[in-house]
UniProtKB/TrEMBL annotation:
The lineage of its organism: Bacteria, Pseudomonadati, Bacteroidota, Sphingobacteriia, Sphingobacteriales. Its EC number is 3.1.-.-, 3.6.4.-. Homodimer. Binds to stalled ribosomes, contacting rRNA. GO terms for biological process: mismatch repair; negative regulation of DNA recombination; rescue of stalled ribosome. This is Endonuclease MutS2. PANTHER family: OS10G0509000 PROTEIN (PTHR48466:SF2), OS10G0509000 PROTEIN-RELATED (PTHR48466). Residues 714-789 form the Smr domain. PROSITE patterns: SMR (PS50828). It comes from Pedobacter insulae.
Amino acid sequence: MLYPENCQDRLGFNEVKQLVHQHCLSTMGQALVNKMQVMTKHEQINKFLRQTQEFKSILINQEPLQISTFFDIKILAEKIRVEGTYLVEDELFQIYSSLQTVFSVIRFFDERKDIYPSLEALFEHLQIEKNILKNIETVIDAKGKMKPNASAELQEITTAIARGEQEVRKKMDAIYKMAIGKNWVADGSLTIRDGRMCIPILAEHKRKLKGFIHDESASGQTVYLEPEEVFTLNNKLRDLEFDRRREIIKILIALTTALRPYTPLLLSYHGFLTKLDFVRAKALFAIDIDANMPVLIKEAKTKLINARHPLLLLSFATEKKTVVPLNIHINEHLRIVLVSGPNAGGKSVCMKTVGLLQMMLQAGLLVPVDENSEMGIFDQIFADIGDDQSIESDLSTYSAHLTKMRYFVAHASPKTLVLIDEFGTGTDPQFGGPMAEAVLEVLNNKKVRGVITTHYSNLKLFAGNTNGLENASMLFDNRKMKPLYILDLGKPGSSYAFEIAQNIGLQPEVINLARIKTGDNQNSVDSLLVNLEREKRQIHETKVTLANQQNKVKNLVSENEKLKLYLEENRKTLIKEAKLEAQNIIKEANKLVEHTIAEIKEKQADKVATKQLRQNLQKSIVSNEVKEERKPVVKLDDSTIEVGDWVQLVNTETSGQVLEINRDNLVLALGDLRSVVKRNRVQKISNKQAKKVAQSNSFSGRISEAISTFRPELDLRGMRGENAIQEVENYLDKAIMLGFPSIKLIHGKGDGILRKLIREYVRKYKEVTRMEDEHADRGGDGITYVYLS
């Protein structure tokens, strides 16, 4: 139920209906759009929404569903019902074209069984009767005209007419040439008068040629004469034409009689075409406003994510501007949102957006919100918007508001959505404020849902201290003195009256006098709100900065873990290789010793030979020691460690410079990395030794280089869809590997196709937590921020 009667006009719903109306192909579809009303049954609303969503998918995917011909065949079916009537060629052709569309659509869905279940339900149990087409095809040609061979009699008459016309033309040409030869003919050629072919004869020669005069020129110097011989032939042709017409009517009556039993089926086809046209128009409008199907719930609550006013969206699109999205939620705990803020800051647009989108949803229309939004169903929608004063009803502005408030209080329920603009205005604020507060308290006690805009401070205070009510403000940049059109739940907003007055150049003496007259208390409250707004913006900026720093710390910790893992794996590998090499050395040494002992025994302990063998053994040992690769020995320094000194981690070759000393903890710079280690885990080394050791470890450098060269921004403008997806895949994999918290994808606006394609692909990554549009001043929905876990 809607109240008052002009509720649809005030919220813009009738304007939305008119835009849908323009997409209809037929008067039948337009009639359904005109009848479109707000519904309250969940199943019915869900069915209409799913039908529109499926048709939208067909249009976006450019499925080969050809729908271009619609006619109102209900009128023709009703005409067929009457005995003795018949349909003419054009009417039969309309039925034929419409049925071709019906069968083509049914064939399309049969080939895609179960893909579009909601649309398939439109023609469920609908019989396909192709005999209707066959009957019409025997009579009517592809251009909608009667076939010459529709019957044997018609073909015979048509042939006779063709022969007669040929004979007339032949006879007329002969007489015309003869008259020209005798100079009887006036300027001009053969012409038609009263449906008869005539020769233009000079008036002085009209008695020289027998025939019938049909007309003469304005000057009387030329007469238009039908020769006697041709006159008789033309009469015969006219009789044949009458015969032909009678035969055509006879054929049409027979065909109409044959179609009469199919009248109920034709009416069913008419209903299907009407619904199809209606759903198609809604889907086209949904594409125009980039609408989606939110999560539909039965409860009377709503959670709008990135919602936009459809009419404002279309208006801004022509001016190449973007709409700032609205995020708001209303439920059993947060029932009424009280929106305050500066004039022209977007309060009314916020309230109207909530109301209009709710109307559209409950009328079966997709809405321009994020598909993760949740929208429930309200039994009633009450709106008090604009000035409804009436001379006829003797109502002032305030009286008109009070009349609506009386109705709201009497009929509101927990399933009522109440929308009130500029609550309490129209009378003395000293009395209007308390009256509005009383109405608000009663409505809150009735647990109604709603959005209310106001400037009254007492209402802001009341909402701040009352359960079920929530203050909200439209953000305002008090440095640039410009509204941001962003809804901020949780606190009231200032009207910025003095700031705006100062910004537009109102004289200082006027502003100062107004401050004095306003009073210290009110000025203090307003100043407090302004300061709160300023502080909140500063806190927000601080949060952003802190979040960036936390992300950097997170990246550094991640890099440090990777470095530790690498070093641990590298240490194990080196130890394993050293053990293998040691084993080989021992084996070789054993072989050498055994060989030497064997030779000594063979020489029978000869002193000279034994001495020579011992020298050879010593040379082999020294040679093996020289061959073994040795790493440079790092000289340790036992002096006290200070900031700026170079140290090396115990049992590793990793070295770094001391940045800070906190008791037993040292903050080290390991390349571009930062790490905290215990003092007893490091040894001081000289700067010269540190540089040599640092050169042998490049892992940290490689990670730092990758991070420093990676830009969290990817420009995809001008790319084809497949190329853009490939670029996004490679880029996103690298961002996730390096641990970046967010990236920016620049795809441009255009028709929104590339944006939609990219966002649908990015959603497949489990690391993606959410996506947002860039701020309207910095590119809006032409840029997507992707946040990673």
